[in-house]
Write a structure and sequence with these properties.
The chain contains 3 helices and 3 strands; from the N terminus they run αβααββ. By secondary structure, it is an alpha+beta fold. It has a 3-stranded antiparallel sheet. Strand 2 and strand 3 form a beta hairpin. The chain is globular and about 40 Å long. The N and C termini lie far apart (25 Å). The mean pLDDT is 95.
């Protein structure tokens, strides 16, 4: 199973994924590259920027990828 396959399965199972989840749960360092591959394969993946807090409690934004609704 390729990393791209793993990301696709994760999206299907959980509905969305962030870079931290990709690293923690799948061991994938470059999620955006895998998302690009999925898009090139024709999968409708969209990105939302979500607000999170960093380790110092400061606001920052990260990408959350999800499959577009059919």
């Amino acid at each position: 199973m390729t990393q791209t396959d793993r990301v696709l399965d994760y999206l299907k199972q959980f509905g969305s994924i962030t870079a931290l989840e990709a690293l923690r749960d799948l061991g994938i360092m470059h999620l955006s590259s895998r998302i690009t591959e999925l898009r090139r394969m024709g999968y409708p993946v969209e990105r939302d920027m979500i607000e999170v807090k960093n380790r110092w409690g400061e606001k920052t934004f990260v990408a959350r990828y999800k499959m577009e609704a059919a």
